[in-house]
Amino acid sequence: MSTFSPLFNLTMEEDYCQENKFIPRELEICPECGKPRISCRWCKDCETNSMKENFLYWTSENKEIDELIRHTQLNASQTCDYLEWIPFEKFDFVKNIGSGGGFSSIYSAVWMEGPRWVWADDLQEWTRAGLTNVALKRLDNSQNITSSYID
To answer: How far is CA 87 from the centre of its chain?
Structure first.
């Protein structure tokens, strides 16, 4: 089972850039907008604009959680540096694998679309990785999560 690891993904991204011998100019300038990139193949302006365009198309139905997710998306500096809301129907093979200390339940599942971690050279954009094993955590009595709980 694969696990979420931003550090691992960052290493993969750096390796890709080194293996493909990108020259500094290719790393620095976004071909879409012509502005400087802040990491390998990550243009903050273009990615932020793309995420902003999708704000109207998803909600957790909790204002504080939505604000947290949007904050991470607006401040992301690489492809594995933000959260996204994934509706439950996007998961398959959900299986209860234990409890999280009496306050939660832990599940294994397969995220059918997967994270946007795959660079499509032909499209010059990030695409979804496809089937990805994930762990889900259901917090008991979490209907009224507030910003103090998130902090």
So the answer is: 14
Of the candidates 107, 108, 57, 118, the residue with the CA atom closest to the CA atom of residue 86: 57
User: What is the distance of C-alpha 30 from the center of its chain?
Assistant: 20
Q: For the chain, what is the domain count?
A: 1
Structural domain containing residue 33:
6-150
Are 112 and 131 within 8 A, CB to CB? yes
Say which DSSP state 11 is in: H
- Which pTM does this prediction carry? 0.72
Q: Is residue 1 part of a domain?
A: no
Q: Is residue 12 part of a domain?
A: yes
Say which amino acid occupies 25: R
Determine the Cα–Cα distance for residues 45 and 89; give it in Å rounded to an integer. Answer: 30
Whether residue 38 is predicted with pLDDT greater than 50 in this model: the reply is yes
Q: Establish if 123 belongs to a structural domain.
A: yes
| Nearest alpha carbon to residue 125 among 134, 133, 116 | 116
Any domain includes 37: yes
